[in-house]
Structures are given as structure tokens and as C-alpha cells.
Design brief:
Blueprint: E1 32-38, E2 48-55, E3 68-71, E4 81-85, E5 88-92, H1 94-103, E6 110-113, H2 115-118, H3 124-131, H4 134-139, E7 143-149, H5 156-170, H6 173-185, H7 196-202, H8 212-216, E8 222-226, E9 229-232, H9 233-246, H10 248-254, H11 259-264, H12 283-289, H13 300-303, H14 316-319, H15 329-342, H16 348-351, E10 399-402, E11 407-424, H17 436-441, H18 446-455, H19 497-505, H20 518-521, H21 525-529, H22 566-573, H23 592-606, E12 623-626, E13 648-651, E14 657-659, H24 674-680, H25 685-696, E15 699-704, E16 709-713, E17 721-725, E18 732-736, E19 748-753, E20 755-756, E21 772-777
Parallel strand pairs: 2-4, 3-6, 3-7, 7-8
Antiparallel strand pairs: 1-2, 1-6, 4-5, 8-9, 10-11, 11-15, 11-17, 11-21, 12-13, 13-14, 15-16, 16-20, 17-18, 18-19
Helix pairs in contact: 5-7, 5-9, 23-24, 23-25
Biased composition (Low complexity): 533-549, 607-638
Protein name: Heterokaryon incompatibility domain-containing protein
Domain Heterokaryon incompatibility: 67-215
């Protein structure tokens, strides 16, 4: 069946006179919706159609005539175009006008649903009512027709061909293995040009619109229209899911934004099992994940998810949430937070709130610290519903909310206090850079960054971009006492973030497995007898210039394994315990040795400056094989390793393939111990790097008075208090604020969630002498 080629641009834009406009009749039933019957036409014909009313009531759904739902980006809201609807003029924006032209058939009518045409946008009450039906509209559609826009750069056909090729490659085991070799291990040798069309496809505005989540996230089949090119949604979403789950560094190098596409796949479809998709069953998590998306009305960041199945898993108050466009944005955000918390079985809502969100004075909503501002880009949630953390063991939240005073009263225990904090970690600090990119990245002087932040801490909150200002930064002024800090050698070599944190914040000189994680020393009789406790006053970790009180496992009577080492605590803290290390396997089946080896592999191969010293030999368990598969290229280009002219890899005893990159495995005996070098041969630096990049960006590393390593939000400060709250899978940071009416000693402000190595499995909840208290959070 042929179709018309596309819209004809008007020679002159004219505003439609109000007297000629189409007048909507009322929708009498709550489940009633309008459908557009678009008449056939050729390229130059005006759009002509009529509106009919149908019912989405379950009792009537079988009698409903088949229809197709249109998904598009509104774009410019000026209505300079028109549809002749039942003989009158219905003004349209250019985007829906172009979409209707693109999907109009030349020889028969087409029954469609499009929000701009089928909802009276000037009737606030109707808009609120129809919002509840959006998920049903798209779920029951015969097809979803997605208008991505015009193909202005002429790359749509190449992008579609790349998607088809990748779909075939990822479904073929041998071809996928060859692709993985060339676009992971040998990524630095690959050309950018073949991937430009796909990169442009993934950056189209449609993928960032908040309403499309429910429009495309159903089981209804969908076709994407980009100019004259059609792209199958199932193929694109599958390819995006594979790239997003396995090829972080590939996506970063070629600027391919598949994360937003894989996120959309079946987002509104309740899974049959509670496996990986259980995150989707939490309404607060859904709101959090949607924060990068664009919304013309920021209340739609809540209302666009009223049809999501997770809302029915909350309490009765949450289930009764309805769209009300008469409410202010501030009231909408507070209202949904209260509804979620009152029926919560966990504290994911609080994990979504971070103190260091940048805001201009004229954009502030004056929200309580426990209410997320959903307008701003989030940090990665450490305590998401799917993680195995259980800091408060199996407890449930014990809280009350004073809505008038906007105070959250919640029970928990006080654990520790921050004494040493890092700079805010850059989002690329742990990204694997190869070739010229690696050399360029190493020019970052972390020591000078640390010194600058000691002199002017107002930069602490300047790295979390927000969606409305597109990377414009803001900060919060604050005062704090100066800390005794190891001063970096300004004349020494510039260091990687991993080394800078280890030396300047943790206080160690070398990477090794013999130094025991300080909190573990307190429970060791051998350590206590030797008077090497890290809890003496002042704590050795209150200043990282005093590592002399460290105890080596090799010099004590400790029954020791590597999990007790400070290095293991360090690499786990930087990755949130590696909870997403390998999504193809249950977390409980992955050994701590694998985490340790992968952190060591990243350290030895990518976190040290290049050296001309002799390279370490490969592991004796490695064997050399030759890849027989031809590497994939969108434009059929040859992509073998340019240095070797082949695809030689080494396969270790675990079956993990890695290229012969001994140029990164310099001995550096003065910095990294031989045992870490030995471990690194069996690790996967790419997996560890992906986790570290995702978890650390815009956060700070810190050390507590008792010696715990901690990763928290960018707004944390020295003297912030570590607490474990009832129902929390992770600890939280609180900060004292001025006295309140009902709290003579003062209240608290929520700084945000944190990872604290050694407190993630309920250890503090079982500790002797721990007393619960009520924290009043404003």
C-alpha cells in the first residue's frame, strides 16, 4: 500500500481566525475518547478528517474499531497549520501536521489517535481526565506510529541499515564475539564515521520526551518514521538494550545514546517475574529514572506515569493520586512524596533526594530536603529496589509526616561522622581512555583540584547538570573548618583519580592487599593487643597524613583474606559493591575475587601513567587463540587491530577474552604490589570501569571518624552524620540544622544516600550498645 510522500511547507504562515475554529463537544463518559478519521490524500492535498467518539471501558473494548496511535514531539507550540475537521478549521502545530501528512494513506481513510487533535487542550478538566486514559489508548492501539521528524541530514537510511546489521550480529554468537573484540578491546582503532548516522538517530528529541514512555512502552507493535525511512521499534530497542548493557565505552566513544532507548522498552509492561525488572515495580524509582526526560510542564513528570502499573503497588494514598493541573508544581511534588512515603516498604523515595541539586534562585521550589526535585538530573540510585544491600536488615520504615510543618520524623540509628572528604568526582574520572584520549585525560591534575577545593569549597556543587539549563551549573555557599590534608606534590607527576583518592583521602602510599580495612581492626584481638586500633583519639584517618598506625595483615595473627583489605574496601566503595557488575548472573554467584581482580585490572592497565619499564608477562594460564570471525562494520570496513594486523586475544582460565595489552601492565613496583599485579591478569577492567563511572560521577569519596570508606552525594561535608534508617537498604547522610519548635536540640537536613563499606549488610543494626532515635528531617 502506497502512502503520500510528506508535508508541503506553506508559502506563508497565517494564524487561523478564532471564529472559524473547530469547537469540541463534551465527552460525557469517563472512559470516552475521540478518534480522528483521516481522509486519504496526495502530497499537496490539505488534511481533511472528522472526529468520532469511542469508549475504552473494558466492557466496550471488544467493540472498539481498530485504530493507530500517533506519538510525536510537540516542538514549537505555535499553531500555524490546519486540519479541516468536520468542515471547520482545527489549528495544528507543525510537528503533528507533518506527522499526519507522513502517515496519511493515498487511497483509504486511516483511523488515528493523536493527543493534540483528540483532546481539547484548552479544557484543563478534560486534560486531567484524559491523562488517566493515555496508557489504555496506546496499549489497545493496533499500531503505534512514531514521527521522529524530517531527515534533515540525509542519514536516516544509513542509520536504519546499521540497526538491521547490529540486530543480526547480536543474534549470532560468533559474529557477536568478533564485534565484542573489535569494539571493546580494540576500540581505539575503530573509525568514528560509520557510526555517525546511528549516533544522530539516538539523539533525536523524541527519545527524550517524558510522555513517550507510556506511548512506546507497551506491547503494541510500533514503527518509527524518520523522513522517508521506516525503522522497526523491536529491532532498535533490542540493539539499544545490548549496547547499553555491554558496551559502555563503545557508546561513550561514538556518542551513541542508547540508554534512553533501552529504558523505554516495555517500560509500562508488568514483568512476569520479579527478576531484573523489579525496579520498574516501584513508583518512586520510575519517577527517578524519568528525570533526564524533557517536559513542557514539569507537573507531567508525575502525571505522565499515572498509568504505570507500579502505582498500584503503593499505598492507598498513592493509588488515589490524580492529575490536577490547578495545583502548583511545588504542591504536586510534595503531595506525591507524602503519598509514596506513607505507604512505603522501603526508602527509595529518600534515595532519590540529594542536597546538592543546583538551582538558580528564581527556580527554587523551597522543597523539604526529603522531597526530590524531579526537574533535575539524578545521581545513580545506590539503594534501588533491585540491589542486595540491606543496611537496616529486614526492618520496615517507621515514620510520620507533619504536612503543615513539612517535617519527616523517622526512626534510625546514628553510626559515624565524616572527617575527610574528596573533591567532587568528575563523570569521566574512571572512564577507560585509549590512545590519544587516554593521554589527554591524564592531564587532569587531581592534586591541584584538591588544593583548589580546600581554598574555595564553593565549587563542590557545580557538577550536577540540570535538564532545564543543559549543563549550566550552580552552587551552595557553605562554611566548614579547614582540614589537615596531605598536600600534593605540585612538582610531581599528575595522577589518576584512583591514585589521588587512595593517597590523599585514604592516606596510603601504595596499593597492596596487606593493609587491613581500618573498621575490621577493632574486632581483632591481635590488633587490640598491639594497640593498633584505628579508633584512638585522634583517629588516624582524621588526617590521611598519618598512615603509621596501619597494620599489615602479613605482620599480624589475623586469619586474613583479601576481603579484609583496605584495597578491596576501596574498589567496592567506588562501585557500590559492584552490584551491577554482571547483569547476566545473579549477584550472589559472583565471587569477591572476581570483583577484586577486575578492580586490580583497571588499576594496573588504565590508572597508571605509561612507563617504559619492562612489562609484566601474561598469566601462565593464558593461551593465545586466533579469531576467525570477520569484525562487524556498518559500512563493511575492515576493523582489525592496526598495530598487530590480526585479532589475537588471550583467554584466561575463567574464559574471559582480553587483548595482548602488556604495554599497560608496567610493573610500577613502587606504587602497586606484586600480588595486585598477579590478580589483575584474571580481571575485567571494562566491567569495573563501567560500574565506577556510573556510581561515582558527581559524588564525593569520604572517610569517617571510625575509618569507614564512604561514597556520597556531591554536597556532603565534614561533620555530616552517617545514619541507618529503618527500612533503608543503604545508609544516609544527615546534617544538623537550627532548632525547631518541637525539636529543642535542632532538626536535620537530608544530604542524601551513601555507600559505606562494612555497613551494607546490617552490621550496625546488630552492633552492641546501639540505640534508636527519631530524626526530624526538614
Amino acid at each position: 500500500m502506497e502512502r503520500s510522500k510528506g508535508p508541503r511547507s506553506p508559502e506563508k504562515l497565517q494564524v487561523v481566525p478564532r471564529l472559524k475554529r473547530y469547537v469540541y463537544g463534551p465527552l460525557k463518559a469517563r472512559q470516552s475518547v475521540r478518534f480522528l478519521v483521516l481522509q486519504p490524500g496526495s502530497e499537496c492535498d490539505p488534511l481533511i478528517g472528522s472526529l468520532e467518539v469511542g469508549s475504552l471501558d473494558l466492557a466496550d473494548i471488544e467493540q472498539l474499531l481498530p485504530y493507530e496511535a500517533i506519538s510525536y514531539v510537540w516542538g514549537n507550540c505555535d499553531r500555524y497549520f490546519e486540519l479541516i475537521c468536520d468542515g471547520d478549521i482545527l489549528p495544528l502545530t507543525q510537528s503533528i501536521h507533518d506527522a499526519l501528512h507522513r502517515v496519511r494513506l493515498p487511497d483509504q481513510p486511516r483511523r488515528l489517535w493523536a493527543d493534540q487533535v483528540c483532546i481539547n487542550q484548552e479544557d484543563g478538566a478534560e486534560r486531567s481526565q484524559q491523562v488517566k486514559l493515555m496508557n489504555s489508548v496506546y496499549k489497545n492501539a493496533k499500531n503505534v506510529l512514531v514521527w521522529l521528524g524530517s531527515d534533515l541530514d540525509g542519514v536516516a537510511e544509513k542509520a536504519e541499515r546499521t540497526v538491521r546489521q547490529l540486530n543480526e550480529v547480536f543474534k549470532d554468537t560468533e559474529a557477536h564475539a568478533a564485534f565484542k573484540l573489535n569494539y571493546e578491546e580494540n576500540l581505539a582503532t575503530q573509525s568514528l564515521k560509520p557510526w555517525i548516522p546511528l549516533a544522530k538517530l539516538t539523539k533525536l528529541p523524541w527519545f527524550r520526551r517524558v510522555w513517550i514512555v507510556q506511548e512506546i512502552g507497551t506491547t503494541a507493535p510500533a514503527t518509527l518514521y524518520w523522513g522517508d525511512t521506516e525503522i522497526d521499534w523491536d529491532e532498535l530497542s533490542f540493539v539499544a538494550t545490548v549496547l547499553n548493557g555491554q558496551y559502555y565505552h563503545f557508546r561513550t566513544r561514538f556518542s551513541i545514546n542508547t540508554s534512553s532507548i533501552s529504558y523505554l522498552r516495555r517500560r509500562f509492561v508488568e514483568p512476569d517475574t520479579a527478576y531484573y525488572d523489579r525496579n520498574k515495580g516501584h513508583f518512586a524509582y520510575e519517577l527517578h529514572k524519568a528525570r533526564p526526560l524533557l517536559a513542557g510542564d514539569n507537573r507531567d513528570r508525575i502525571y505522565a506515569f499515572l498509568g504505570h502499573y507500579s502505582i498500584n503497588k503503593g499505598g492507598k494514598e498513592l493509588q488515589n493520586l490524580t492529575a490536577d493541573y490547578s495545583k502548583s508544581l511545588k504542591d504536586v511534588y510534595i503531595d506525591v512524596a507524602v503519598r509514596i512515603l506513607r505507604g512505603a516498604q522501603d526508602l527509595v523515595m529518600l534515595s532519590s533526594a540529594h542536597y546538592d541539586v543546583p538551582q538558580k534562585d528564581n527556580e527554587r521550589l523551597d522543597l523539604p530536603s526529603w522531597v526530590p526535585d524531579w526537574r533535575y538530573l539524578p545521581l545513580h540510585i545506590l539503594g534501588s529496589p533491585s540491589v542486595p544491600h540491606r543496611a537496616s536488615k529486614d526492618t520496615k520504615p517507621d515514620l510520620t509526616i507533619d504536612e503543615d510543618a513539612r517535617i519527616l520524623h523517622i526512626r534510625g540509628v546514628r553510626v559515624d561522622v565524616l572527617t575527610t572528604t574528596s573533591w567532587q568526582i568528575r563523570k569521566t574520572a574512571f572512564q577507560i581512555r585509549q590512545g590519544a584520549q587516554e593521554t589527554k585525560e591524564r592531564k587532569v591534575d587531581w592534586g591541584n583540584i584538591l588544593q583548589r577545593e580546600e581554598l574555595d569549597d564553593t565549587s563542590a556543587n557545580k557538577r550536577t547538570p540540570n535538564i532545564n539549563t543543559n549543563h549550566n551549573n550552580g552552587s551552595q555557599q557553605r562554611d566548614r573548618p579547614p582540614r589537615q590534608q596531605r598536600k600534593p606534590d605540585r612538582n610531581g607527576p599528575r595522577t589518576h583519580a584512583m591514585e589521588a583518592l587512595w593517597k590523599h583521602i585514604c592516606g596510603y602510599e601504595t596499593f597492596n592487599l596487606s593493609d587491613v580495612y581500618p573498621p575490621f581492626l577493632a574486632t581483632s584481638p591481635a590488633v587490640t593487643a598491639a594497640n593498633h586500633s584505628p579508633f584512638s583519639s585522634p583517629s588516624p584517618l582524621s588526617s590521611p597524613t598519618a598512615p603509621t598506625s596501619r597494620i599489615s595483615a602479613t605482620s599480624s595473627a589475623l586469619p586474613y583474606d583479601h576481603r579484609q583489605s583496605a584495597f578491596f574496601a576501596f574498589i567496592q566503595t567506588l562501585t557500590n559493591g559492584c552490584v551491577s557488575f554482571d547483569r547476566s548472573r545473579p549477584y550472589s554467584t559472583i565471587s569477591s575475587e572476581e570483583f577484586l581482580a577486575s578492580g586490580a585490572a583497571y588499576l594496573t592497565r588504565y590508572a597508571q601513567p605509561p612507563s617504559s619499564s619492562a612489562s609484566r608477562p601474561a598469566s601462565s594460564s593464558s593461551v593465545t587463540i586466533q579469531s576467525q570471525s570477520q569484525p562487524f562494520s556498518p559500512l563493511s570496513s575492515i576493523s582489525h587491530d592496526r598495530d598487530r594486523g590480526d585479532s589475537t586475544v588471550r583467554v584466561n582460565e575463567n574464559g574471559n577474552a582480553s587483548p595482548v595489552t602488556t604495554k599497560f601492565l608496567s610493573s610500577h613496583s613502587e606504587l602497586v604490589s606484586p600480588d595486585i599485579h598477579a590478580l589483575s591478569c584474571n580481571g575485567d577492567p571494562f566491567k569495573w570501569s563501567r560500574e565506577a563511572v556510573m556510581v561515582t560521577r558527581h559524588r564525593r569519596f569520604a572517610v569517617t571518624r571510625k575509618g569507614y570508606f564512604l561514597l556520597g552525594p556531591g554536597g556532603l561535608q565534614e561533620n555530616d552524620v552517617v545514619v541507618v534508617l529503618r527500612g533503608g537498604t543503604v545508609p544516609f547522610l544527615l546534617r544538623r540544622v537550627s532548632a525547631m519548635g518541637n525539636s529543642p536540640g535542632g532538626g536535620w537536613m537530608l544530604v542524601g544516600e551513601c555507600y559505606v563499606h562494612g555497613l551494607m549488610d546490617g552490621e550496625q543494626w546488630d552492633a552492641e550498645g546501639v540505640e534508636e532515635e527519631v530524626f526530624s528531617i526538614t
